[in-house]
Design goal:
With 294 residues, this protein is mostly helical. The protein has a single domain, classed as Farnesyl Diphosphate Synthase (Orthogonal Bundle). A two-stranded antiparallel sheet has the order 1-2. A hairpin with a 2-residue loop joins strand 1 and strand 2. Helix 1 crosses helix 4, helix 3 runs antiparallel to helix 4 and helix 3 packs parallel to helix 10. The chain is globular and about 50 Å long. The two termini are 14 Å apart. About 4% of the residues have low confidence. The structure holds geranylgeranyl diphosphate. The site of geranylgeranyl diphosphate has 15 residues, from helix 4 and helix 8. It is an enzyme of class 2 (transferase).
Length: 294
């Protein structure tokens, strides 16, 4: 990782964390529910989605305070999706990021409710943002609802589950991931543009960038599941090859998946050249995604 990206992360992640914890800390709710929500928020996520919101806002020199709130909202949705994804009725995983999953610590009922509470809180914090014109808040809330719901992440999860019982072709696999993984990344990038009141053309370019980054992210995730250099090694390594689940390496071979990853990365980077302003951080975040080892 370059120093520029490291400084960007060091500067923003501390604030993202503070904002997240204080937003949950100050709600009036049963303590065990707040503990369960905070447990997963504090379990060591990379904060990629909030970092993308901030990177786009920095590109347009805009409204960082509100960008942290939007980043917190998308991180809450992401965290809820992981809690629910790990439940016995879904993936039934005992470990996430090397730590016991939420339901292992708090029980299935509270874990389900902590996910529900994070999901709903995310929309509330967007609605309560100060210094953002109401029309922009409504647009952000609408975009997040589409990205997180049936037309986005939840729909993608359903396609993914459906795909476990049969082999998907490349087009179908892309459809799963455009929704399941891509939708929240796209929201993060588009939300930065909406908050910054970017032009239609800038927004279009950024959404296309997000599309390729989302797919690159998932391909790297599939490759890591097999090459397993992360703390998840032993838990997920080889898992997707052993199960019926369709993956990029499964369809394309590992070498083919790496080529596809490079293709999406190159397209994403070339799209950034269409934007005015300093796109260094966006470029480096894209590189971080394709080179990450966890
Ligand atoms: C259960 C409603 C519901 C949705 C589940 C997103 C999702 C849909 C499930 C999560 C499981 C999974 C492997 C999703 C693919 C996306 C992905 C690679 C998530 C991990 O994101 P990172 O790497 O996670 O940003 P960290 O741990 O850094 O926060």
């Amino acid at each position: 990782m370059t120093n520029t990206l490291k400084n960007f992360m060091d500067e923003h992640i501390l604030i993202i964390d503070d904002v997240l914890y204080s937003l949950v800390g100050k709600i009036i709710a049963p303590e065990q529910l707040k503990d369960s929500m905070l447990y997963s928020l504090k379990a060591g996520g990379k904060r990629i989605r909030p970092l993308f919101v901030l990177a786009v806002c920095e590109l347009f020199n805009n409204k960082l305070k509100e960008a942290y709130t939007i980043g917190a909202a998308v991180e809450m949705i992401h965290t809820y999706s992981l809690i629910h994804d790990d439940l016995p009725s879904m993936d039934n995983d005992d470990l996430r990021r090397g730590k016991p999953t939420n339901h292992v610590v708090y029980g299935e009922a509270l874990a389900t409710l902590a996910g529900d509470a994070l999901n709903t809180l995310s929309f509330g914090i967007l609605a309560r943002m100060e210094n953002v014109p109401p029309a922009i808040k409504v647009e952000l809330i609408n975009l997040l609802s589409v990205a997180a719901g049936a037309e986005g992440m939840v729909g993608g999860q359903v396609l993914d589950i459906d795909g476990e019982s049969r082999s998907l072709n490349l087009e179908e696999l892309e459809q799963v991931h455009v929704n399941k993984t891509g939708a929240l990344l796209r929201f993060s990038i588009e939300a930065g543009a909406v908050l910054s009141e970017a032009s239609e053309e800038e927004r279009r370019v950024l959404v296309e960038f997000a599309h390729h980054i989302g797919l690159a992210f998932q391909i790297q995730d599939d490759i890591l599941d097999i090459e397993g250099t992360s703390e998840e090694l032993g838990k997920t390594a080889g898992k997707d090859l052993a199960s019926n689940k369709s993956t990029y390496p499964g369809i394309l071979t590992i070498a083919g998946a790496k080529d596809k990853l490079a293709e999406h990365y190159e397209i994403a980077i070339s799209l950034l050249e269409k934007l005015n302003g300093d796109t260094t951080i966006l470029k480096e975040l894209a590189e971080y995604i394709v080179r990450r080892n966890k």
